[in-house]
Write a structure and sequence with these properties.
Layout: H1 24-36, H2 54-67, E1 71-75, H3 78-87, E2 96-99, H4 106-112, E3 117-120, H5 132-138, E4 143-149, H6 158-165, E5 171-175, E6 183-184, E7 187-188, E8 195-199, E9 212-216, H7 219-229, H8 236-239, H9 256-287, E10 293-294, E11 309-313, H10 315-318, H11 322-331, E12 337-338, H12 347-350, H13 379-388, E13 389-392, H14 401-416, H15 418-421
Parallel strand pairs: 2-3, 2-4, 4-5, 5-8
Antiparallel strand pairs: 1-9, 6-7, 8-9, 10-11, 11-13, 12-13
Helix pairs in contact: 1-9, 2-9, 3-4, 3-7, 9-14
Bound molecules: pyridoxal-5'-phosphate (PLP).
The site of pyridoxal-5'-phosphate (PLP) has 14 residues, from helix 3 and helix 4.
């Protein structure tokens, strides 16, 4: 059988079924809310309804109890949750916040929103999460917080990062958009750091179209997030809030419809996560012995919930470039792509164009540090992006046993034909 790339028939002729977590339960829940006529109950002034309607409140209490966290605050996206959580930390303009270059852009822009300065630390290759040694090396007297992403569904080295922050007045916010339900040392990710931010965007394990939830055990952080979510500045006087910094309020409110859907989605989370783990483990056992390919690593004490199934590829072992390999796999019907991101290389950081055209907030006299966004500051992240990482977006399809076996067969077929693909 010749490779599909050279005219043979593809291993996977029709694409797998699209993944969706939405079913009749969500339809019923949404209809109930719409029929009630109460689509959102918030008021943006100090009032009992400042905290939202019955479904928002119920979702928050169910989310907090599921994840074993002191508080859960529903918001309208992970992005707004990150903005609220960082605003809750009393950052001063010009403070530095350490973040990974391998995360969605919002993990870093949520820092800039408060006129604080993102400082990128490098990743470790095993999980593509922040490398604690690099984080430690980037700490300066200006460091006030760390945003740590549990990338692709695998927890970061959270205790080492918490240890680095401890005693230095540095807060840690977890961006767990990709890792709902992943465990770290017996706790859910999101509950290890000072606050954790989940996404309910439609690309994620569970969703409400758009939405997010922040969890924290810290009552003061929780209150400040609730304020920022709902027009803080017009509430603080009547509510008697005394800590008045960063009290720019937004409208980050989740609607009753989304909250009702989220309550149903939460009931499905563990089942959906489990089936994705089963699929990933099946694929890993099938690919484990292919030369030059390293399936995802799962660190002892952590669980991986596989938002993305990310592999490392070594073209020096096969003699086939990563781009050539991807062409061959794509032709066989495997949806796989190269690399991820390097946020520090985006125009916003290269040109320092966050606000206005004069380089603010890096310029303007507030920032006393010397952050660099030069190519080369995160060598592991850059190399992994440019030459080693292969990723399958596990969140896109239903990977049942049969589909996984066909994906594995496509890999094996390509590996059987490596000599015909050699381009190095
Ligand atoms: C999806 C994602 C976000 C953004 O989530 P939204 O709910 O769409 O705002 C942020 N961070 C990471 C790591 C993500 O994967």
């Amino acid at each position: 059988m010749s490779l599909a790339l050279f005219g043979g028939s593809p291993t996977i002729a029709t694409p797998p079924r699209r993944y969706t977590s939405i079913g009749p339960e969500e339809v019923k829940a949404a209809v109930r809310v719409v029929e009630s006529g109460n689509l959102s109950q918030y008021v943006g002034c100090w009032d009992p309804d400042f905290y939202g309607g019955p479904n928002v409140r119920a979702l928050e209490s169910e989310w907090a109890s599921y994840f074993k966290s002191g508080n859960a605050i529903a918001v309208n996206s992970n992005t707004s949750g990150l903005m609220a959580a960082l605003g809750a930390l009393n950052l001063e303009p010009g403070d530095e916040v350490i973040v990974s270059p391998w995360t969605m852009s919002a993990s870093a822009t949520a820092i800039l929103v408060w006129n604080a300065i993102p400082v990128f630390a490098d990743i470790e290759l095993e999980t593509f999460n922040l490398d604690p040694a690099s984080v430690a090396a980037r700490i300066t007297p200006l460091t006030r917080a760390i945003v740590v992403t549990d990338l692709f569904g695998h927890p970061a080295r959270l205790s080492e990062i918490m240890e680095i922050a401890r005693g230095k007045g540095i807060r840690v916010i977890e961006d767990c958009a990709q890792a709902p339900g992943a465990m770290y040392a017996g706790k859910f990710v999101g509950t290890v750091a000072d606050a954790g931010v989940f996404s309910l965007n439609y690309h994620k394990h569970i969703h409400t179209g758009e939405g997010g939830v922040v969890v924290t055990d810290n009552a003061e952080i929780a209150e400040r997030i609730q304020l920022i979510r709902n027009h803080a500045e017009s509430v603080v006087a009547d509510k008697g809030v005394s800590l008045l910094t960063n009290m720019i309020g937004f409208n980050f409110r989740m609607t009753e419809v989304e909250a009702a859907i989220a309550r149903e989605q939460l009931l499905k989370l563990s089942g959906l996560v489990k089936s994705r783990m089963v699929a990933a483990e099946r694929l890993t056992s099938a690919l484990r012995d292919l030369p030059g390919l390293k399936p995802p690593f799962v660190r002892p004490g952590s669980s991986h919930v596989y938002y993305v199934y990310a592999m490392q590829y070594d073209s020096s072992v096969t003699g086939v470039s990563r781009s050539r390999l991807i062409e061959a796999l794509n032709a066989e019907g495997v949806d796989i792509s190269a690399g991820y991101l390097n946020l520090h290389l985006l125009p916003m950081y290269q040109k320092r164009i966050a606000y206005g055209s004069a380089g603010f907030p890096w310029t303007g006299g507030l920032y006393r540090g010397t952050v660099s966004y030069d190519k080369g500051i995160c060598p592991q992240a850059e190399r992994a992006h440019e030459s080693t990482v292969l990723k399958m977006e596990f969140c896109k399809y239903v990977y049942d046993d049969e589909t996984i076996d066909r994906v594995a067969a496509a890999f094996r077929k390509v590996w059987d034909h490596l000599p015909s693909l050699k381009d190095l």
